[in-house]
Structure formats: structure tokens, C-alpha cells
TrEMBL record, chains A, B:
Residues 118-188 form the WYL domain. PROSITE patterns: WYL. Coiled coil: none annotated. Residues 207-276 form the DNA-binding transcriptional repressor CapW C-terminal dimerisation domain. Residues 5-85 form the DNA-binding transcriptional repressor CapW winged helix-turn-helix domain. This is WYL domain-containing protein. Pfam families: BrxR_CTD, WHD_BrxR, WYL. It comes from Sabulicella glaciei. It comes from the Bacteria.
Length: 300, 300
DNA sequence: GGAGCGCGTTTATTTTATATACGCGTTCCT
DNA sequence: AGGAACGCGTATATAAAATAAACGCGCTCC
């Protein structure tokens, strides 16, 4: 089966499954295919997936039957919702999505500085070729109020649920750090690497954050929260890169004292809080750490 | 130009732009076309976008030329990074992505309860047909420790940066509320709507959150933060649905007292804090609100 | 210096898709 | 009630796209 036909059959099934119906005109519009071809595709789909469709003369559409057997796609709620989010956030055009009738959706969103597309391209290039680049970086460090050129060797990307950064070896400070992509204002001059990915200890090693329901919740509430976070016996283990620990804790509300927060807002606490704090210091994300920690790194 | 050819040309340009190179074998592998056809596609691309490629005999690949003129795609950093995230989060299969050599990437992620795919399908159906459904909902309300059946009329979806909920009119409490999709355990019996989307005041109306840099930052740091959040004159206006206000504030760390937090962790504060608090009460998300507020709603 | 590999191109053949046209049945409007 | 409108299916001939199989070329790497 040719790729184009396969795509159209998947499209038909996608629309049937998530939207409940499909039309010959849908195919014509989306794929630019001729009317007879669209008819053939629909016939072919009905041959390959018999019993999945019923034609409704009122709406003049094929309707998904009650007992629907998937044959071409393997749908997932989070994939569908991810498309919704992408459209809602503006990072995907509505006509590119296979979802035709987008339901109203809103995502908690914040304005953010743009990422320079050339910067990202050349960071990616440096990561692939395992080289270094010079970046004009706008740090938050009070010693460096203005953007300065510094050489870095990037090897990975991190997303804190809000912003993207490049994980890179900094040739100036001789350690691995996070560089927020929107704060890289310019980029130039490829060069030799300063350190390879394998030596980024904080990136390559994981710490287990153990979470549990907030102690002030009622027993039944704790059960709900436990299910929400896929906990087993009231706890869940989250393996987190040391380099990502700060962001994960922030996201989960575990940076300050979650047990003192209102349990209706803060549902979980860290069970191994003491170890978490030590790990956080180790990761140097707390930024209140002495300088003699091995393999330090920090966000700016 | 046929849809399939168009797709392949876009694919070629995508790979050239983001990955720096493309191969005949790449086309054969991804689209399942024959070797001669892949050759023809590459030739066609070079005709339509002359000067974009150079053949490198070492790697036996077409390399993106230095001065690259986009002809078929309109790339965006956040679209590319969105794909990275989707793969990193597991909500997209690596082979479905057009990115071949996925750089190392990590996203601050949390285990989460699954969404029942049938639940989502039928909620979507209810939204489209503007009807109601009965859902078996696991609330956190201490009066209802066990899941109960309740009729709702959903009309939209919300994403708080972490979880998805359905915005719906609750026939039991006679008001609009948020229903977390993972907590809907079962679904049944379509019915007539209880209220339409237009009467969900908290969803349809917006409040302007005004944010600014944390006052304890240095002047230069404030400038950086201002740029990070696309602020103008040191402030940015965020129009937020009342129904989403709680989530946005939580995400931005503005729920408690951001000005008392360490500015290195909490970069921004709300300028119109008093109004924000009133709006938050209005939205009934604080859950510490008297019962006589018009058109109340709340998260459970 | 030769094996290996990826590229390009040729041929004949098959598959896919198109344009154009027609009849059918249902719905909806007058 | 009658007819226009619309979407469906299908027929035909034609055009385009893609395939299989085969060959030579040039470069790299061993």
C-alpha cells in the first residue's frame, strides 16, 4: 500500500474516531484529491474496516458505528489533546491538524520571549557535531548585566514545563550550565568542544524524588491524589536528572515547604525531603551553595 | 502538484533546515518510495529550490547550503521544540516525527493518571452535539469520598500546564465547574443540555493580570525578566479567563506572596495584586468564598 | 588499488489519480 | 407535493506517478 493511500485511510479513521464522522469532501479538501478518488478511498476503508461506518443521509456523512474496531491508527488521548494544545498555543496551524472541528480549548499560557530560529539551528548543529559555539548570552548574573559572548559546548535540551534551555559546557566558567534559548541573542564561530556529554554528571545521573499525598488531606482525598500521581502504597518514585531537579521541584510545588501550604492547592509533598534538599544543593540549583561541590552547574 | 510529492518536498526542506542534511535513503525509509522516485524527488527539490543544497561526498548526503532560502515550509522554533517535547513525553512515536536525529532532551514531567479514551471520545461528542452526559466522577470533595454519577454539560477543555479538564455545567450543583479528565472513571447516557456555553460567564470573560519583575531584582535583572515576559515599560498584561485564572496564577507562582519569595526563584509579581485577589475570589477558585457570588464555579 | 556504497539514469510496466460525465437517492425548500 | 440541490457511486479514457530491474559512475575508505 502506497504511503499516500495509507495516510488517507488513517485520516478517515482518525476523523471517524475522534470527530464521529467523515465526508468525501473532507478528503478532497484536506488532501486535494479528486472526487472519484475520495470515493474510492472511502470504499476502500469500508472494505478494510467493515462495520465501522454508517452513512447518514441527514448529515450526508459517514458516521462512526457504535462498535468501532480500530484498524489503521492507534489513538491516544494525550496525543489528541496535545494537538489541541498545540493549536491553542499557536504552535500549530489549525488546518495542519487532523482535527476539523476544534472544540473550545484554553491553556494556561504566558507571553514569552521568542527563540531566534538561527540560534536554535546552530545550537542543534553544535550538538550533532559535538562542537562548541560562541553565544551572545544575556545572563541574570548581577556581575554581568549586559549580554556577553561566551563559548559553550551544548549537548542536550531541557524543558521545565515553561521554557527551553540548552544544556552546555561553559568554557568561561568551566562547568556545565543551562542556557535559556530565548536569552541567546546571537551565535557565531564554531569550534572544538570543551567537554563531552558523558562528563556532565548532573545531566547523566538521576535522583529519586519520592512523593506522597499532602498529610493534611483526608484519607479519601489521599487516595484520589495517590491515583492522580500513579502512586503505589501512597508513594511514587520520580527519577529526575540532577540537572532537572530544580525545575521538577518547582513545578510540583516542592521547593519551599509544601506541607505548610493549603492541601487544597498543594496536593503532594516530598517523602524524602532531607535527601531532596541535599540533592538540590548538589545540583547547585539552589544557588546558595559553596563553590567546592564536584561537577557543579547552575541556572542563570 | 500532488499531495504526496508536496509532502516529500516539505520533508526534504525540513530535514535540510533542522537537521542540516538529507539522504536518498531517508526518503525511501520514511515514505516507502522506490529509489528512483527518491532520486527524482531530490532532483525536483533542487530545481525548485536552487542553491539550497550541496552534495557532500564524505557523508554521502545533501547538505544545507549556508544561504538557505525556504521555499516549502515555514519553520518555527516552538514547533520544532514541540515535537521534541512530544517525543520526550512519549505522546508521539519517534518514527512519526520528521526529526531523525533527536537530540537528547528532557522535560520536567510527572506521572499522571491515564485518561480513559472512551470518556474523552464521548465528552467530545457531547461538546459537539451540545448535549449532556452522565459521568462517574471522583471528586476531592470531602462530602463525596467515593465516585458518584453526575450529569454534566461540557462545552470546552482547559489545560493548566499539567492536566486537562473539561469545562462543564454541573446539573447537580447547578453551576459551571472543571472536571479533571483523569478523574472521570466512566461515562453513560447522553441527554439534553443543562446550560449552554454562552452562559458560562467565568469562561467567557477575561481578567487582565498585570505582571512585572520582582522588586528585589537589580535594575539590569529587571530588564532581562521584562524581556523574558515580553513586557513593555516593565509590565505585561495577561488576559486570562476567570475560569483559568487560578491555574495561570499557580503556574506563575502568583498565588501566595511572590514578593516575599527569593527573586532568583520567583522572577515576577502581580502589579495589580488587589484586583487579582478579588478576581480570584470571583472565580471561586480560592475555594474560600462565600456562596452568594454570581455565576460561581470551582475546581475540585 | 579494489571493494563498497550511494547517486543518477534508463527501460518497460504497473499502479494511482485525474477529468468528465451520468444516474441515483435523499433532503430540504418553495 | 414537486423540484432543485447536493452528495454519493460509478463508468470511461487519459495522464501522471511510482515501481522493478538493471547499469555505469565517482568517491571514500580500508
Amino acid at each position: 500500500m502506497r504511503w499516500g493511500v495509507e495516510q488517507r485511510l488513517e485520516f478517515i479513521e482518525f476523523r471517524l474516531f475522534w470527530e464521529g464522522s467523515i465526508n468525501r469532501a473532507d478528503l478532497v479538501e484536506f488532501f486535494g484529491v479528486s472526487v472519484p478518488q475520495a470515493s474510492k478511498d472511502l470504499t476502500l476503508y469500508q472494505e478494510r474496516a467493515p462495520g465501522n461506518t454508517e452513512y447518514d443521509n441527514r448529515s450526508k456523512r459517514y458516521i462512526a458505528a457504535d462498535k468501532f474496531v480500530l484498524r489503521f491508527i492507534n489513538p491516544d488521548p494525550y496525543v489528541y489533546l496535545g494537538q489541541l494544545r498545540a493549536v491553542a498555543e499557536g504552535s500549530a496551524a489549525p488546518h495542519e491538524s487532523w482535527i476539523a472541528r476544534l472544540p473550545q480549548a484554553d491553556a494556561a499560557l504566558t507571553p514569552r520571549r521568542d527563540i531566534d530560529i538561527e540560534v536554535l539551528r546552530r545550537i542543534l548543529d553544535a550538538v550533532r557535531s559535538k562542537g562548541s559555539v560562541e553565544v551572545l548570552y544575556q545572563s541574570m548574573n548581577r556581575q554581568r548585566p549586559d549580554p556577553i559572548w561566551r563559548r559553550i559546548t551544548p549537548h542536550a535540551f531541557g524543558y521545565d514545563g515553561f521554557r527551553w534551555h540548552a544544556r552546555a559546557y561553559c568554557h568561561m566558567e568551566h562547568k556545565f550550565k543551562d542556557f535559556l534559548l530565548p536569552r541567546i541573542l546571537d551565535i557565531r564561530s564554531k569550534g572544538k568542544p570543551g567537554a563531552n556529554a558523558e562528563s556532565d554528571w548532573l545531566w547523566n545521573n538521576y535522583f529519586d524524588v519520592i512523593i506522597g499525598p499532602h498529610p493534611d488531606l483526608t484519607e479519601s482525598q489521599k487516595i484520589v491524589v495517590a491515583k492522580d500521581y500513579c502512586m503505589d502504597d501512597g508513594t511514587a518514585v520520580l527519577p529526575v536528572r540532577y540537572a532537572m531537579l530544580f525545575y521538577v521541584l518547582k513545578r510540583l510545588g516542592l521547593l519551599s515547604n509544601p506541607e505548610k501550604e493549603d492541601p487544597r492547592r498543594q496536593h503532594i509533598v516530598a517523602i524524602n525531603k532531607a535527601e531532596v534538599l541535599i540533592a538540590l544543593e548538589k545540583s547547585n540549583m539552589s544557588q546558595e551553595v559553596s563553590r567546592n561541590i564536584p561537577a557543579p552547574a547552575g541556572g542563570e
